[in-house]
Amino acid sequence: MTRSGGSPYAPHTDAETAAMLADIGVEAEADLFDIPEGVGFDGAFGIDSRSEREVRTEVERMLGRNDDMVELLGRGHYDTYVPSLVDNLSQRAEFLTSYTQYQPEVSQGFLQVLFEYQSMLAELTGLEVANCSMYDAATALGETATLADRIRSTTGQRVLVPAHLRSGKRGVLDNYVAGTDLHVESYPMDDGCVDVDALAELVEDDVVLVYAESPTVRGVIEERLDSIAGIADGHDALFALGSDPVSLSVLEKPARVGADVVIGDASVLGLPASYGMGLGMFATREEYVRQVPGRLVGASEDAAERRAYTLTLQTREQHIRQERATSNICTNQAWVALRAAIHAAWLGPSGLVETARDSIVRTSRLADALDELSGIDAPVHDRHHLREFVAETEQPAVDIVDALADQGYAVHAVDDHEIQLCVNDLTEDDLDGFVAAVTEVIEG
Amino acid sequence: MTFDQARWRRDDESVYEPLLSEKDETTVEINGGDAESADDSTVDVPLPDELTRDELTLPELSEPELARHYTRLSQMTYAIDTGPYPLGSCTMKYNPKFTEDVAGLSDAAIHPDRPERRKQGTLELQYRLQDYLARIGGMDAVSLQPPAGAAGEFTGILVAKAYHEARGDDRSEVIIPESAHGTNFASAALGGYDVVSLPGGEDGRVDLDALDTALSEETAALMLTNPNTLGLFERDIEEIAAMVHDVGGLLYYDGANLNALLGRARPGDMGFDIMHYNVHKTFATPHGGGGPGAGPVGVVDELAEFLPAPRVRRSEMGYEEFRPEHSIGKVHGFSGNWLVLVKAYAYIARLGDEGLADASAKAVLNANYLGEQVEYEVPYGPFHHEFVASAGEQDAADVAKRMLDYGVHPPTTKWPEIVGEALMTEPTEIESKDTLDQLARAFNAVIEEDDETLASAPERTAARLIDQTAAARNLRLSWQALDE
């Protein structure tokens, strides 16, 4: 069998190509291109074709230039151990190579997984509506601001966010509101938590959205969510909470503390560290369902009166509503949502709760161990932490970060004398080794 | 040539595959503080009681049960690996398997906040992919950050806005042809622009008179897909570019149809100033049932300083990140959908110049061949990688449902609206002549069938025709909302 061209994934033999061209009535493939001479291109990109084996080796060598490190990095992106079941099942080609479920009769499997994903978020948040899905926590925050703008459009333009907010998240939010009349302001934090009195002073009737996080970007569990919700509610502003599904397995249900919207990155389930790739979680109250951005899967019936699933309320979406859509999102993170759903199901309720508990326990153990050393105070905030915390260092933070990197540990410098550490899925051995490295750096 | 999707039912045939919550549900009680555990279903959490929830109720199944559950669900999912998927404008093509392994390398799984000199491999791959995409698009600079095609459009709009504002030029309108992808309209609106809809000409292409009327000093950009959604090449592209540039506007290229042009023409050479690449389409990274994708944005030199930060460039240490001088900032919390970008790099490297050009040649060949075989009318041509047939007196949505019974996925239906009862068909380069013949048989069998047969389809799929109205009227969006 002779193939007629360069793509290894085009199945045509020369004979088939000839037969097809003859059927169409042209002599050559080039005759099918209706491109004016002035804009034609000769195909010379200067990219050599390599064999599969060569490409693999090349990428392996290239990525091998990343240092081998133990990462204590977090601040919105977390390395999580993902059970083999998730990789194995999510890579089944039917899940991996399907498209958006526009023909639900042949997409019942994926639709059911997404329905189950929505259901688990409904249990974790206590809210009735979860979409499936958005890009990441930052874009979900941007979408929440435009949601607030639609719902509270007559009352004002101010969006309030915490002073402790990852700069990338704030940057995305600023871009999402660039085309609206909204403007974003920071409110102060006090010892890692929201300064509730200061927030109360700032909130007036022209505020459409108050956003808070728990755990915060510094790993602090917020202690007065109900007060914050009350302040927002008192001025008819939406209250959005940023969190993640693992912490929600133990923290009070957001709906019970007054959250109107819950967003965050759900890739803490299902995705290992993937250079910031995420899964935007978004849940809200049923009364806002027609203003929700993104895809929703609903239960319905088929012609045989059996339960069936389908994308629903599509008239909100860009492919039908065009410029009046609730969002421009089309391709989302469906496959990552599938991975999160399988991971959550694998853990089950007890596994999820234990994962959160272990994270609290190990964070506090590491902070205690570091606090015993001279030259470092940990944690800076006398609060409850999940996953991560900030420590104060006598030496400049950047020097400590560099010295630790030389020993194979990656940590954040968050201020001149502050480093941030995330225990996420590190083993006890990793953490012991890290404490020894910090000891050497500080005392050496 | 027919097929049956897998189905598992209860004795009463009420459910194909029970929900996890129907198989098992467990409640774990959560004790805050130092309370003693009551029993196995209680977990102590070292937090004050007022911060913790009382309980969590979710399914708790064994791994073997889960393996079967998800395997069965996969079998109820149609995919490119199970059959042809000629969804126009979606470019559903085969995803090479080795790219998954490449993206799964442990060195790919790092945290984005590492110091630059500790992640030289990742930066190098980003740099090389920026370069490949720039060459393929005829662009000068590329940002990999946008996490999807629509995010790329939004980024392009923000870049255009920043460019005009930097020149002290406040413009309010974006022109978009009626037949464009809905995301174009939504992205322009999200960027704060008024959308000016451009009616098509009689030949299905941009009507230059209508364009002339639409253009003004308010025009920030024209968003164009070329070939357009009818598969037609905009032959007047050089004149269109000149007209847009004459009023000070920018020309935006929607990369959804780039599969038709690889190695034959480049957006940059046609006069486009900004473009996005749908790497999950053109460069065969899996669509994942609706994502993740990636929508890198390329621009000409003059606009490079406005691209999102960070970008990657060469430096003394090897590679470093930098913030373009007047960067619009961030469009994703980190650096976009990295693993998808790794797959795109591997795909491009595998194909190279010859493979990329051949992919387009075969995509166009396949569309033209299939277009010849189908008996439905194809009102516009000559077309490239996709064509729009009309179902005529039949309802295109019904035609699609009936095609499912013939074992194939149907085309995109009822869009673009220029063609009545549109069947927008894109076979891509990966289908063999035999498969195209099978697809044509499905098209041509349905054209013979009466309304009653169409209305009762599909019959051989995992679910029969699903009631969309009931789904929207009686919203049930979680298992908590099911009342059975």
Keywords:
heterodimer, A: 444 residues, alpha/beta, Aspartate Aminotransferase, domain 1, Aspartate Aminotransferase, domain 2, 2 domains, seven-stranded mixed beta sheet, four-stranded antiparallel beta sheet, 37% helix, globular, B: 484 residues, three-stranded mixed beta sheet, 15 strands, GDC-P_C (chain B), glycine binding (chain B)
Structural class of chain A: alpha/beta
Q: What would you report as the Rg of chain B, rounded to the nearest angstrom?
A: 25 Å
Question: Number of domains in the coordinates of chain A?
Answer: 2
- Could you state the order of secondary-structure elements of chain B as H and E? HEEEHHHEHEHEHEHEHEHEEEHEHEEHHH
Shape estimate of chain A? globular
Assess the beta-strand content of chain A as a share of residues.
15-25%
**Class by helix and strand content of chain B?**
alpha/beta
In a nutshell, what does this entry contain?
Chain A: One of its GO terms (biological process) is nucleoside metabolic process. The complex is a heterodimer of chains A (444) and B (484). Chain A has 444 residues and is an alpha/beta fold.
Describe the structure.
The complex is a heterodimer of chains A (444) and B (484). Chain A is built from 14 helices and 17 strands. Chain A has helices at 14-24, 52-63, 84-90, 93-96, 108-125, 137-151, 167-176, 196-202, 225-234, 245-248, 318-321, 334-371, 397-406, 428-443, and strands at residues 70-71, 129-130, 158-162, 183-187, 189-190, 193-194, 207-213, 238-243, 261-265, 280-284, 297-301, 307-311, 376-377, 388-393, 409-410, 412-415, 418-422. Chain A folds into two domains: 70-80 and 347-443, Alpha-Beta Complex (Aspartate Aminotransferase, domain 1), CATH 3.90.1150; 84-343, 3-Layer(aba) Sandwich (Aspartate Aminotransferase, domain 2), CATH 3.40.640.10. In chain A, a hairpin with a 2-residue loop joins strand 16 (412-415) and strand 17. Chain A is of the alpha/beta class. In chain A, helix 3 packs antiparallel against helix 12 (334-371) and helix 5 (108-125) packs parallel to helix 12 (334-371). The mean pLDDT of chain B is 95. In chain B, strands 4-10-9-8-7-5-6 form a seven-stranded mixed sheet, sandwiched between helices. A three-stranded mixed sheet of chain B has the order 2-1-3, with no helix packed on it. In chain B, strands 13-15-14 form a three-stranded antiparallel sheet. Chain B is built from 15 helices and 15 strands. Chain B has 484 residues and is an alpha/beta fold. Chains A and B meet through helix 1, helix 2, helix 3, helix 4 and helix 5 of A and strand 1, strand 2, strand 3, helix 2 and helix 3 of B.
